[in-house]
Design goal:
Length: about 120
Amino acid sequence: MPLDRMLVLLGGIAAIIWVNWYFFVARSPVAVVAAGATGLQEIRITVAGGYTPREVVVQAGRPVRLVFDRRETNPCSEEIVVPDFGIRRFLPPGQATAVDFTPQSPGEHEFTCGMGMLHGKVIVQ
């Protein structure tokens, strides 16, 4: 096999490995949220090519406020969906948008972009 074809093949394999690592293996730290004086559990989540932090741990029975700070204009991230709580909200670029709910029982609840490409999780204890 000629050298130029070998380099293209190796570059393609490297790109496939990187994409799979980025979407399926790479993890951001888990944020454990403490309740404030009012009992509200609030966390800011940066939206830029994904969610940071990607996983948030909260306590059951206390109100939760996820503040999504969208720092990009990618159309994929223009909406946040939390299906377990019936939430679907538009996220304007360059702005922070609060999403409030109160989880009643322990479990894991996924949140995604409107297209289902970006994923995050609320872990209720």
